[in-house]
C-alpha cells in the first residue's frame, strides 16, 4: 500500500511530491517552518475521514527563546517545552509513534513567542 521510499513535501502544497532517498517503508517526512511568527504552525494536514497521523519522530530548532507545544488539532499532546536561542529537540524514531492524532485531525506545532522555528516531522498515515 505504501511506497518503499520517503516522500518529502512541504505543508504549503501537499500535492507536490518529490521522491528522495531510502527510508522505512510507509514513512513520510515533512519539513516545516514557523516563518518567524508565534502561535500555531500547521505541520501535517488532516488526512481525511477514517485516517489519522502517527508522528514517529521530530526535530525542531528555535531561533530564539520560546516554549513549544505540539498539538493534534486544538488539543495539546505535549507540555510546553522551553527552548533557548539556537537550541531544539530531537526525538529519535519510535515505530509506535510519539503522538497519534484522533481521526482526521492535523498535527500542529505552537510557539508562544514570535521566533523562527524549523525542523521536520516523520509520520505515518493510518486508517481504520
Domains, number: 1
Structural class: mainly beta
Would you tell me which CATH topology applies? Jelly Rolls
Helix content: under 10%
Can you summarize the main beta sheet? 5 strands, antiparallel
Q: What is the overall number of helices?
A: 0
Instruction: Report the CATH architecture.
Output: Sandwich
Q: Secondary-structure element order, as H and E?
A: EEEEEEEEEEEE
Q: pLDDT average, as an integer?
A: 78
- Quaternary state of this entry equals single chain
CATH class: Mainly Beta
Shape: globular
Radius of gyration, in Å, reads 14 Å
Fraction in beta strands: over 45%
How many β-strands, per DSSP? 12
Low-confidence sequence ranges: 1-25
List keywords for this structure.
128 residues; mainly beta; Jelly Rolls; five-stranded antiparallel β-sheet; 12 strands
Describe this structure as you would to a colleague.
By secondary structure, the chain is mainly β. It has a single domain (5-127), classed as Jelly Rolls (Sandwich). Helix content is 0%, strand content 52%. It is built from no helices and twelve strands. It has strands spanning 5-8, 18-22, 28-33, 39-44, 51-62, 66-72, 75-76, 81-83, 87-90, 99-100, 107-111, 117-127. The strands form three sheets. Strands 3, 5, 9, 10 and 12 form a five-stranded antiparallel sheet that branches. Strands 4, 6, 7, 8 and 11 form a five-stranded antiparallel sheet that branches. A two-stranded antiparallel sheet has the order 1-2. A hairpin with a 2-residue loop joins β6 (66-72) and β7. The two termini are 14 Å apart.
